[in-house]
Write a structure and sequence with these properties.
The complex is a heterodimer of chains A (277) and B (103). Chain A is mainly alpha-helical and 277 residues long. Chain A has one domain. Helix content of chain A is 71%, strand content 4%. Chain A has a two-stranded antiparallel sheet with strand order 1-2. Chain A is globular, with a radius of gyration of 18 Å. Chain B has one domain. Chain B is 88% helix and 0% strand. Chain B is flat and about 55 Å long. The N and C termini of chain B lie far apart (53 Å). The chains are: A mainly alpha (277), B mainly alpha (103). The interface between A and B is large, with 55 and 53 residues.
Chain lengths: 277, 103
């Protein structure tokens, strides 16, 4: 496919917006980029998913390189859940090759809407389990310094099987729909496993790289990733996520969730319209 | 308390991810530039494909590093878990290659 400077610029800018939103929401930006590629640039759904996955990998690598050493991401929990996310991604990748674009678009609309509803119902929930500093956080738990409250947040991980199940589903959604999977993991880890939102987001951002690699390598070797479009999208998303990451450090959890829900509802409606047309 | 090996692991993995992402984005930017300057040449997409390969290899390198780091710490549970992840990634590579050849 020939790429014009205008098309490259458009995709770079769209990637930039997706990157900002992705960094703010801990989603990797795919939830925004896939509909843009399909609805605006009229790319086939499978190509859009493949391109989106390459941006998810890039975002994960850059964001995790930046947060490494700050203690916010929970490496042990992440590496445990990665077994489930990558297994899900492999299963999803195998299924995706057999599904039609229409089916995948319909699934995308449902997942986006479902997540928006989950977020809206949990807007005012107090999520952080504050445990006194002397309490053991357990083998999978973690602790980090929170600037807003000026204190150390200590948490332990509850209901690991539920976390693994959500991770498997998130992994398969990654390969099927071109998402990072944070869309499912972050709320699940937060609500079911007791992981604070910020730690859940950082840990999810760490995991989505290798998870998206599973799906992306399937699309890549099948020749479904258009190189020039992927390059423009990746560079745009990285520029955007750099900007978004700066904003995210100062943003409030409630505002993040509200923004996430609104974005998802709009995206869902557009993809549903596309599926039914 | 966070243990010292854990902090070290995080720094080492952070470095792997930083080098990989800088390398891949540089190659992707170069390839995109070539593709824009010479749209009819196959050189641009070829360079970008190389950049995408480095991009895909970066998280894999991170997992490989994790396996070795946990093994050297004699943390066999986490060495095994990360090894399983590595095996799944290699499996996806084979699935892609095999289905790509057939289609």
């Amino acid at each position: 496919m020939l790429i014009t400077p205008l098309l490259a610029l458009v995709l770079f800018l769209a990637g930039g917006v997706a990157g900002i939103l992705g960094a703010l929401l801990g989603l990797g930006g795919g939830v925004f980029l896939v509909p843009f590629l399909v609805l605006v640039l009229h790319q086939p759904m499978h190509a859009a998913v493949g391109i989106s996955l390459t941006t998810v990998i890039a975002t994960s690598s850059v964001v995790s390189a930046g947060t490494a050493g700050r203690g916010l991401m929970n490496m042990r929990l992440g590496m445990t859940l990665e077994v489930a996310t990558t297994a899900g991604a492999l299963a999803g990748g195998l299924v995706a090759t057999a599904l039609s674009a229409r089916t995948l678009q319909g699934m995308f609309a449902i997942v986006a809407a479902g997540t928006a509803i989950v977020m809206l119902t949990r807007l005012d929930r107090r999520n952080v389990r504050l445990v006194s500093a002397g309490v053991d956080s357990g083998r999978l738990g973690g602790r980090y310094y929170e600037e807003e409250s000026g204190g150390e947040v200590v948490y332990s991980v509850h209901r690991l099987p539920l976390g693994l199940l959500a991770s498997f589903v998130a992994g398969s959604m990654s390969s099927l729909l071109g998402l990072g999977g944070g869309i499912i993991k972050v709320p699940a880890l937060n609500a079911w496993c007791g992981v604070p939102l910020r730690a859940a987001a950082a840990t999810s951002a760490f995991m989505i790289g290798v998870t998206a690699t599973v799906g992306a390598s399937i699309y890549f070797w099948r020749g479904q990733i258009v190189p020039t479009l992927a390059a423009a999208a990746v560079l745009g998303v990285l520029a955007g996520s750099r900007a978004g990451f700066v904003i995210a450090a100062r943003a409030r959890a409630r505002w993040l969730k509200l923004l996430m829900a609104v974005v998802l509802l709009v995206v869902s409606a557009l993809m549903l319209a596309r599926t039914l047309s | 308390m966070r243990s010292a090996p854990l902090d070290r692991l995080e720094r080492v993995l952070g470095r792997v991810l930083r080098i990989g992402s800088m390398l891949s984005t540089s190659i992707l930017a170069l390839g995109l530039l070539v593709a824009l300057v010479a749209p009819s040449s196959a050189a641009g997409p070829a360079v970008i494909r190389a950049g995408l390969l480095v991009l895909l290899a970066t998280p894999v390198a991170r997992v490989v590093t994790s396996v070795f780091e946990y093994a050297s710490d004699r943390d066999w549970l986490f060495a095994s878990l990360t090894f399983v992840v590595l095996a799944i990634v290699v499996g996806s590579l084979l699935v892609g290659l095999l289905s790509g050849v057939r289609s």
